[in-house]
Amino acid sequence: MDPIKELELSREVDRMRLEWNNSRREVRKHVNEFCLSIEGEFARERRLEFLDLSARNSLKEISTLQKLKLKLPAWLWDECELTKVMMRYKKFIAEIHSLKFGTNTFCKKRIDDDTIDSARKISIESLVDCDRISLAYDRIKIKCPFHNEKTPSFIIYTHTNSWHCFGCGLHGNGAIDFIMKYKEMSFPQAINFLVGS
Q1: 120 and 94, same structural domain?
Q2: Is residue 105 part of a domain?
Q3: Is-above-0.90 flag for pTM?
Q4: Are 91 and 54 in contact (CB under 8 A)?
Q5: Maximum distance among all alpha carbons in the chain?
Q6: Residue at 76 is within a domain
Q7: Residue 153: helix, strand or coil by DSSP?
Q8: Whole domain around residue 66: which residue ranges?
Q9: Domain end call among 40, 73, 100
Q10: Digits of tens for pLDDT over the chain (197 positions)?
């Protein structure tokens, strides 16, 4: 056989093999997308069931530990274990809330800087509904939204858009930080809550 024809034939075979591989990749990609769209909702429902069961078990564990705390002497009691279980319970509840109402954890996308900046510019005063006592031109004193109190100890510094409670000690910078602590949300959830996207 002629070497030129052999070379042309091998190139033709390589081209056909490449086309076949590309078409196989395309088909596999479409099949995977279809399966993910079907399984996504099923996986979400299964995850919600698991989280609900885990949250219930954590509540049982918390009540058991609180009963045990009353029975044991103070020197024998380990407060860290109860704190760990309570934090685990809060994480379960936050993820349930996220799956039901907030951002989709299966399909995360990056939040752009303009959205973050617009969320940061929201004043804390507009987020809190309380009787305001103005202290000076740049400070507002109100009752703390994080705990019950008779006299106001929550200070909003309007020039820096930061806040501090002298009663419970919580503090933060900006509306994002406030919403993350007040609503117990993650950073993306707080931004979505503030901007409404």
Answers
A1: no
A2: no
A3: no
A4: no
A5: 100
A6: yes
A7: coil
A8: 3-100
A9: 100
A10: 677 777 777 777 677 767 766 766 676 666 556 555 655 666 777 777 887 888 888 788 877 777 777 777 666 666 667 777 777 777 777 777 777 765 544 445 677 888 888 888 888 888 877 666 767 778 888 888 888 888 888 888 888 889 999 988 888 888 888 888 888 888 888 888 888 74
Asked whether 54 and 92 are in contact (CB, 8 A), the reply is yes
Give CA 167 to chain center in angstroms: 27
Task: Select from 48, 73, 100 the last residue of a domain.
Answer: 100
- In 3D, which of 169, 175, 167 has the Cα closest to residue 195? 175
Structural domains of the chain, count: 2
Contact in structure between 135 and 147 (CB atoms under 8 Å): no
Residue 154, in any domain of the structure: yes
Distant-in-sequence, close-in-space partners of 188: CB < 8 Å, separation ≥ 6: 103, 108, 111
Cα 148 from Cα 169, distance rounded (Å) = 13
- DSSP classification of residue 35: H
d(C-alpha 48, C-alpha 95), whole Å: 9
Q: What is the CATH number of the domain that holds 126?
A: 3.90.580.10
